[in-house]
Structures are given as structure tokens and as C-alpha cells.
Amino acid sequence: MSDGRALLELLEAEEGRRDPYPLYQRLRERPPVYDERHQAVLVLRYEDCVRALSGRGFGRPDEAWVKRRIPTWQRHPAVRCLMQTMQFGDLAGHPRRRGVVSRFFTRRQIASHVASVSATVDALVDDLVAEIERHGAADVQSMLSYRLPSISIARLLGLPEEEVASFQPHSLALAKLLEPRLPEQRLAEADDSFRTLRTYVERVIEARRRHPGEDLASHLVHVHDTDPTTLSRDELVSMFASIFVAGTMNTSNFIGNGLAALLTSPDSVARLRADPGLMGTAMSEMLRHDAPMQVTRRVTVADVELGGTKLPAGTELAVVLGSANRDPAVHTAPDSFLIGRSGPPPLSFGGGAYFCLGAAMAQQESALIFSKLVSRLPGLRLAGPPVHNLGSVLRGYLRLPVTADLGSAPDAGRRTGAGRRMS
Ligand code: HEM
Question: Strand 138-139 vs strand 295-300: parallel, antiparallel, or unpaired?
Fold first, then answer.
């Protein structure tokens, strides 16, 4: 077995999914390798990833891609939904689909939206503090990391927060369509979740048609009703589904991965507490160090050369953002977590015409959480072993138990009566 094949097998094994970074390093030193799991050539070096993301000759996966991957894809409503999102499917339709929602995601628009969830962050951190008080530890993933993005997406769409929160298992099942292996069981779960989501979304569509508001849901219904060639009925449902999934799962993993990195570096936490202005570079380092979305997809649309290898048109590529971010050719000591780091930006939000639409939203709402945790919880540390999701594409923690020295918190007693020591 060639060394490349052996490395790919290690990458698929449990330990490789828990910590793929040493394997990426060994793979980066070799010529590009074809990975059966992804059914794609892996692109691993920073410069190659930049070119594949935004250079000429590279496009996004289309119907031919999905046909090769899942020959029966038309029989799976969840996969049909995926192919109607802006991320996949009809390449020519991408600017139209993206254009339908982009004005809701500008930095300015998002700044005022995120300001409106600031009080919610306080309340969520209060709950976390109360849980640590009661039990000595609390799970950040269930109490914060998913709840904040789901509340935020609910408000943007104008939907009840508890309804969106209850969709977590369905978002997870749909997000797993991005993982490399898609056994029948996984496809069936995604189909079931999509059917549940579609029923809900159809109710929302009817309600907004009767009582439109200023929210994103009303806007989407209005665009479809005014001109179905701008947004068809299937695209309307897919748009909801992709905003639910992309808006919650990635941000949730970002909060968990970023916090886990911070917890291994008390010096970084102390620096952030002393100088909150470092939050921007600290978050950039969190995104670089452990990218929540490890892989995005491209297909060559012309014959190209990448990293010294000739790739004919139609070659499928798995662009390994998590590997590019650790490439020693551009980052000194790439495995170290250094919040003051300079250097090229991480590629964790992808690039080019497909750059993540929700990047500003994810960063601004996560900044609120990280700032609040650092300032309110001195001695914040792990309270037990974290449990990893072992995802190859969407990488994050299932559980991240933490504790803190609450008695010395700057606003200890804020909720519980001044002077009372929390333990
Ligand atoms: C830290 C959190 C997030 C990360 C790491 C992330 C990462 C990514 C990546 C890697 C891509 C693919 C880009 C490419 O192929 O070049 C992407 C696309 C996308 N993301 Fe995010 N994302 C995050 C949060 C969000 C949020 C909060 C939303 C929406 C509310 C969102 C919506 C989207 C959409 C709609 C696309 C498709 C863009 C297009 O194809 O034009 N993402 N994201």
C-alpha cells in the first residue's frame, strides 16, 4: 500500500478524525493525493487552497458531482434540497440565489442585529454561571454554543426562538450530508429531518403570506411570490434549510473549538482580559487553529496546474481549509495557539465568490460570547474531558464541560445577592 493510501486510512480512523493535523502535515509534503472517501483530490497547502477557492479555472460542485457521489440522489429529498441551495447545484444560478439574501448579511446590517442579541448573551452566561454554582461544572456546548446562534437565526428570520432551537437534531442530520461517507442510514436520517423541516417551513410561508413583517422569512416569501424565477418554491424551502443549518452548526462549532483552544492557554485568556481590543486577532487565531469547517469543495472547470500537478477539467477537489491554516510555509509554529499572531488570514470561511455569507454574523456574535466568558469567569477551565464529534468536515465538540473560580468573578453575586461567594 502506498504511503499516501496509508495516511488516508489513518485520517479516516478515529484518532485521525480527533486530531488530523499531524497527518495533514505528512500529506502536504507529498504530491496531491486522491481520497476515495471524499471522491476528490485533496488540496492541502495554503497557496494551493487560495488558488482553488478563488482562482480562474475552479468552480463549485454541480449536478454531475452529486450524481457521481450519490447515483440515487433524486430519490432523496434532503439531497435534492442541498442541490437547490446557493452552495451547490446550478453554478450559473449562484449569484441570483446569493443576491436574494445578501442585503441581510452586510457587516452594517449584522452589527445592528447582533447588538439586539447582546442581552441574550448576558442571560445565557448567567445560566452557565448558575449551573456551575449548582453543580460545580457546566457544558458550554449545550448551554451556549448552539443556543446563541439558534436564537440569533430565529430573530433574523423572525421565528419563535424555542421552535428554531428544537431543530438542532434536524440541523445536525442535514449537516452530516457534507461528511465524506454517506451510508444509506445517514441519507435516511437526513431525509426524515428534511421532511420535518419542510413541513415547518411551509407553515411559516403561509403565515408570512397572511401577515408579512420586516424579517428575513417575510422577505424570502415576498421575493418568491413576486417573481418565482428569482426564487422558486423549492429554492425558498432550501434557503430556509441552509440558513438554519449553516447559521447554527458552524458557529456553534466555532464557539466550542475557540473556547477549547483558549482553555489550553491561560496566558492568552489573561491577555484578553487585560486588553479586550485583542479579541479580533484572538478569534482569527481560533479560526485558524481549529477550523469548524475543515473542507469545502471545488471542481476544475478547465485544465489547470495546481501545486505542480496537472488536473484536467472536471477534477473534483476537497479543499482542506484546516490543513491550509496549519501550513508551515505561511505560518510560523503552525500548531501553536498564539493570539497575537500576524500572517496571512485563515481560510476558515472559504474564499472568492462563495466566501461564507454569514462570516460577519458568526464573528460578531461569537465575540460577544468570548468577551463575556473571559470577563465574567476568572479561572475558566475544563472540568472534565471534552467529547469530540469526530467529524471530518464539520469539526467540533459534543460536550465541553467547564468550571471557574466564581467567588472571584468581577460581578460575582450579580444574580445571587452581593457578597455571596459562589463555589
Ligand atoms: C464560524 C462560523 C462559520 C464558518 C466557519 C463558516 C464556514 C463556511 C465555509 C468554509 C463556507 C464555504 C465557502 C467556500 O466554499 O468558499 C461557507 C459558506 C456559507 N456559509 Fe458559512 N460559516 C460560518 C457561519 C455561517 C453563518 C452564521 C451563516 C448564515 C447565517 C452562514 C452561511 C453560509 C452560506 C449561505 C454559505 C454559502 C455561500 C455561497 O455559496 O455563496 N455561515 N461557510
Answer: unpaired
What's the CATH number where 387 sits?
1.10.630.10
Per-residue pLDDT reduced to its tens digit, 64-92: 888 888 999 999 999 999 999 988 877 88
Q: Is the CB of 412 under 6 A from ligand 1?
A: no
Which residue segment(s) compose the domain that 102 sits in?
3-408
413: in domain: no
Say which DSSP state 143 is in: I
Cα–ligand 1 centroid distance for 395 (angstroms): 14
Q: Is the CB of 104 under 6 A from ligand 1?
A: no
How many residues are recorded in the chain? 423
Between the alpha carbon of residue 201 and those of residues 135, 147, 239, the distances in Å are 38, 20, 10
Angle between helix 279-289 and 233-263 (nearest 10): 100
Closest CA to 194 of 160, 237, 250: 237
Q: Is any ligand 1 atom within 6 A of the Cβ of residue 350?
A: yes
Look at the chain and report how many structural domains it folds into.
1
Q: Does residue 55 form part of some domain?
A: yes
- Ligand 1 contacts CB of residue 346 (under 6 A): no
* Residue nearest to ligand 1 atom 27, measured at CA: 247
Question: Is 418 a domain residue?
Answer: no
CB contact set of 248 (below 8 Å; sequence gap of 6+) = 146, 149, 150, 153, 164, 168, 171
Rg (CA), the chain: 22
- Which residues contact residue 136 at a Cβ distance below 8 angstroms, ignoring those fewer than 6 apart? 383, 403, 423
- pLDDT 10s digits, 325-376: 999 999 999 999 999 899 999 999 999 999 999 999 999 999 999 999 999 9
